[in-house]
Amino acid sequence: MLIDLKRLFASEGEVVDIDYTLAAAQSDLTGTVPDPVEIHLKGVAQNRAQIVEIRFGAHFTVNSVCDRCLEPLTRVFDYQFTHVLTQEVIDGFEEDIIVDGDKLNLDRLALTDIQLEFPLKLLCCEDCKGLCPQCGANLNRESCNCDKDPIDPRLEALKELLQ
Ligand SMILES: [Zn+2]
Ligand SMILES: [Zn+2]
Fold this sequence. Notes:
- This protein is an alpha+beta fold.
- The protein folds into 2 domains: 2-117, no CATH class; 129-163, no CATH class.
- Helix content is 20%, strand content 39%.
- The protein is built from 4 helices and 7 strands.
- The strands form 2 sheets. Strands 2-3-4-5-6 form a 5-stranded mixed beta sheet. The chain has a two-stranded antiparallel ribbon with strand order 1-7.
- A hairpin with a 6-residue loop joins β4 (51-65) and β5.
- The mean pLDDT is 86.
- Bound molecules: zinc ion (ZN) (2 copies).
- One zinc ion binds at residues 66, 68-69, 71, 123-124, 128.
């Protein structure tokens, strides 16, 4: 969605409703899964005393896999974002976006906002035990008999010296 800033900045009290679905690629968020994801954006852009404030919620569902055990997972996300748009720097506002040009690309703004908030790792549960690096067993469901003692490189070096 492109927001017409010219009109918004021109008249105090001007309101633009935001209510649409942004079709994005999930790889924009997780970096791996190519599935499409539908991001529903709902909010408002409003001119208040010559300052345009844009507030919107982003609601979407991600179908992916756990980063540790690779089990499928579905997660619902709900984010709220607020930005103050100005045409010049104004003292006392921290979250300014200085706009030049007549249009604001809300798709891009929303995607960037979401990317900054999106978790680096998606886990099926906080204490997911993951997969055994040696036999691939899902350690949430089963235990295996692999030797999990990490090899201490110093001891290995010592062993070699003693041979
Ligand atoms: Zn997991
Ligand atoms: Zn194992």
